[in-house]
Amino acid sequence: MKKRVLAIIMAGLMAASMSSVCAYAEAEEKTEGFYIGLSNGYWGNTWRAQMVEDFETKAEEYKEQGILSDYMISNTNSDATEQLNQINAMIDSGVDAILIDAVSPTTIKSAVEKAKAKGILVVIANDPAAYEDTICVCGDNYTWQKIQAMWLMEQIEGKGDIVKITGVSGNAADTIREQANDDVLADYPDVNVLTSAPGNWSQTDAQSVMTTFLSSYDNIDAVLEQDVMAEGVIKAYENANKDIPVMTGDYTKSFFTKWAEMEDLNTIGVPYAPGNATVALEVAVRLLQGKEIDESNLVANPMDENMINTIMVAPPYVVTKEAQPDAAWMEGLENTEAISLDEAMELLKDSADTAALDGYMSDEAVDKLFK
Fold first, then answer.
1. Do strands 121-126 and 135-139 pair parallel, antiparallel, or not at all (unpaired)?
2. Boundaries of each Periplasmic binding protein domain copy (predicted)?
3. How far is Cα 128 from Cα 106, in angstroms, rounded to an integer?
């Protein structure tokens, strides 16, 4: 494979807060026949399986069009050493670009540097990480969690005893989401967080954690948890024969079905779209084709506010029992649609029970990210 030339276009030299924006071009102009790898650092739930499936579907489409000559996917379950080995194998195989969803934002430095030294485009996908001369394409974890925390505070009128079930400790998405929770809760001094524990984005783990909480506290007014885990929380309450309080929810078909069956369940569903992986792939392809990102579409990296290299993808929907487009948590969300539970069920009617309510950027929307 011909050696790639990495051209670094310095953006925002007039402001110290701006970082490098990378444009990648071939030594000879090339618009197709690229070889791309996806390194996925977590493989512990159906959401990640759907993310990889979304990537594969788009990659196959590109392959049929000749835009990709081939692609490769590697998965590891939060093993940083294994992920480094997998990324290094991709580099040695001669990929043109690597999309990395890192085990941790700090564990892939050596591999990123090796890839850049060989002229390989590095796109950080889904979970943010801050590395110079890379592009980060990720879901807006902060806004995603803020919506739910704001909704929960409104439901309990800003007072009461709550518990939190977090995601995978050390994961960038979990860190950002919990910062959003902390920022919202800071405005509600009458809300008491009784305890918090990781549920590892697992229904089984969340059920175990919630069971422990229920045995430890007589009164819990609300449950603030992240995605994938809501059905585990519900099972813990059902097994304890206790009424389920207001709780943040999930966005899978199985959860929406259960929600529809439980008339008294007060919850919300905000999809963190697995389809974000396809946006990262589409951005990578356009960069390899020599297109340049419009710097006005870049925001600060969630892991380093001084690095302006991130395309932030908003949640596609906010699902409540009845759609609430004028709610406070919808303010400023131009690309997010408020829909009802019935509308969400309709969107998922032909999907498997484990499927997440997904969302994708159109080709036209991705094109608008570029000059």
1. parallel
2. 36-292
3. 10
Measured between alpha carbons, how far is residue 28 from residues 4, 22, 25, 288 in Å?
A: 9, 18, 8, 12
Torsion angle, CA of 316/320/324/329, rounded to 10 degrees? -70
Residue-wise pLDDT for 165-194, tens only, equals 999 998 889 999 999 999 999 999 999 999
Instruction: Provide mean pLDDT across the span 122-144.
Output: 96
Could you state, in order of their start, the residue ranges of all structural domains in the chain? 5-139+273-313+358-367
- List strand residue ranges (DSSP E) for the chain, in order: 5-10, 20-25, 34-40, 68-75, 97-101, 121-126, 135-139, 160-166, 191-198, 222-225, 246-247, 299-301, 304-313, 317-320, 337-340
Write the pLDDT tens digit of every residue in 5-27.
333 322 332 232 333 344 454 44
Cα–Cα distance between 199 and 209 in angstroms, integer?
7
pLDDT digit string, tens, across residues 349-368? 999 999 999 999 989 999 99
Q: What is the fold, at CATH topology level, of the domain defined by 5-139+273-313+358-367?
A: Rossmann fold (3.40.50)
**Cα 4 to Cα 186: distance, rounded to the nearest angstrom:** 49
